[in-house]
Amino acid sequence: MFPETKKLSINVISSIPLEFQRYFFKGFKSVYDIPHSDGGDTMIGAVVFVISFVLFLLISLAGVYLPPGHSILDAFLPEIFQTDPMYGQLAEGIINGVIYGVIIWFIFTIAKMLYDRMHGPKEVVVKVEKKDK
């Protein structure tokens, strides 16, 4: 009458052989108790870094003065602006992209970690109906 209900975990440890699972995870009641990271969201931090890197690189190439890149180049390579200003802007853009990209990535990582901790583990329930052949 009612469809059969099965619980599926978002992170299934299917790549680990069953013998190793029994040995290493004997203290856990089920697969749901095993601590694991969410495999679907691991690359989102890299995307945030790349987007912020490209954004600050383009802002610096447009000629907008941003403090860390220009100051670092002025202190270590002051002759780069005298030889060709375009090389100076490109180097300034790369430095600004890396610095601001790391800062934004770090803030995003901390915020995502706090958000995930507040919402707890996720559970997916899939209803499967048996078909008669």
Individual helix count: 5
- Overall spatial form: elongated
Which structural class matches the secondary elements? mainly alpha
The radius of gyration computed from the alpha-carbon positions, rounded to a whole number of angstroms, is 25 Å
Order of helices and strands, N to C? EHHHHHE
Low-confidence stretches: 5-13, 31-36
CA-to-CA gap between the ends? 17 Å
Strand order of the largest sheet: 1-2
Give the number of DSSP strands.
Answer: 2
Record the SSE blueprint:
Blueprint: E1 4-8, H1 18-24, H2 44-61, H3 67-76, H4 80-83, H5 85-119, E2 124-128
Antiparallel strand pairs: 1-2
Task: Describe the overall structure.
- By secondary structure, the protein is mostly helical.
- The chain has one domain (4-128).
- Helices cover 56% and strands 8% of the residues.
- The protein contains 5 helices and 2 strands; from the N terminus they run βαααααβ.
- The chain has helices spanning 18-24, 44-61, 67-76, 80-83, 85-119; strands spanning 4-8, 124-128.
- Helix 2 runs antiparallel to helix 5 and helix 3 (67-76) crosses helix 5.
